[in-house]
Amino acid sequence: MEQDPDGPLDPAARETVLAALLRQHPRALASAIDGDGLFVDMPPNLVEDDRRVVAGRSALELVEPADRRAIIGAWDRVKARGSSEATVRLANGVVARYHFVDVRHRDGVLVGLIVADGEADAVAAFARREPVIPKTGRTEKDEMAVIVAEDDRIALVLGYEPGALVGQRSLDLIHPDDQDRAVDAWIDMLGRPGGTSRLRARHLRGDGSWLWMELTNTNHLAAEDGGRVSTEMVDISEEMAAVEQVRQREHLLRRLTEALPSGVLHVDSDRRVAHANSRVFQLLGVPADDHVDPLLATVLPDDRPAVLAALDRVLAEGVDADLEVRVARPDERLPRHCTIALRGLTDVDGLPSGAVLNVADVTDEHRMKAELERRATIDELTGCLNRAAVLDTLDRALAEHGHGSAGTAVAYFDLDGFKTVNDTHGHRSGDAVLAAVGERLRRAARHGDVVGRIGGDEFIAVLTDVASAEDARGAVDRLATTIAAGVPVPDGPSLVLGWSVGVAWTDRPGAEADRLIAAADHRMYVSKRTA
Fold first, then answer.
1. Please, which pLDDT band fits residue 92 given cuts at 50, 70 and 90?
2. DSSP3 helix / strand / coil % (the chain, rounded to 5)
3. What phi and psi, each to the nearest 5 degrees, are found at residue 431?
4. What does the pLDDT look like over 110-166, one tens digit per residue?
5. In b/e form, how buried is each residue of 288-313, taking b as 16+ CB within 10 angstroms?
6. Domain coverage including residue 298
7. Are residues 114 and 145 in the same domain?
8. Are residues 225 and 327 in the same domain?
9. Would 252 be classed as within a structural domain?
10. Which of 106, 126, 146 is the last residue of a domain?
């Protein structure tokens, strides 16, 4: 019966294919591969004694990343049909054909052959120079955990001479820090005939170092042919090294966040707190919690909705945000100003997976800014607006004029006889007079009106929402009466001073501040000359 050329090859046909490949390509590199695709020791007499054998752990390691799919496809085909090949580019850039043949029925392995005609020397770079150390091994133990047998791989895994482990008590080969867990696992397994126990522990190597192993003990002590405990041993040192790297990085991250002056919160997609440094609880004045929302309870109610909305968005969409909020800590009378920077985190697929919140106290900066703004607008002696600030206020008031709106008035005040105060009582008394006059004008001004000092003993009042010039003069007369009473001076009698006042009013859209002030100034001088 003829074999289907596209169907699975029978065992004899697979052996024929392998023999032909070995004969046709004497310089091809060979590898023995287990059913999981990992390289294993070459069985005796499978290939010629002088045949070079591939180094490494799997065919995927030997090719460029772009050709790994081709290797996977060839692997699927050889397991389905018994033979396959793929043209790939090796990791050193050489183009080669990778053949796979399944001879597990006879030798327990699949065979891989790398063929690169004319470039055999380049392919030889992948030949095995040292034996490949296996990752797994097996021992047999008695009920006292003494090793009574071992396979030929475990000695290579642990770096012992063959048979060196036989007769040793397995607990003596376990790291002291792991022995209690090893005893617990062993007792648990002994209590369950046919049961297993799994343990991860550091195992002593032949050179005195320690190797992380996963040991799976299976209880066969009740077997009729002589009971033993079989132990499958797997080298997990690479995995544990990666775990240790992650642990060290997490430790470094925690130490770094504890050293920061700002508070740091790591929140997962369910709003649970994955990490928080102690500073964040101090800044917010809240106790530790495993959920983020209670940590934001001290944010003032007017600011909290914006924070919660920003948090919702960064967790759902990964949109970053920067906010400034006020925080009412229970141990302080005045709220603090804090910035909250929200930064989104993503998983391996680029989807939102959480967020980092950085909380910084900017109260001092906020107060300094407010103080600078105050100094930029306030006359230090009188507490009134300074010249620039009062002119800016007038400009804005005039810009808001529209059809049918009320007008704006400017009152220009000048103290009569102020030079005499300085000459007679000194500048300290003059400053006291100016400070008292400024305070009285500010207290007497209507809500919404402002008073400014433009220099020396001259003040300006800007009156908004004034219906007429007559109303403006009435409001100014009430301001002028504020200094009718005597003004006290240091170490001297109260002084009674008079004002010269000029008033200008307009409701014209587009009126110019300079013209309005000039008109008020002119009327003030007229008033002074006629007094």
1. confident
2. 40, 30, 35
3. -65, -40
4. 999 999 877 777 777 787 655 567 889 999 999 999 999 999 889 989 999 999 999
5. eeeebeebbebbeeebbeebeebbeb
6. 262-365
7. no
8. no
9. no
10. 126
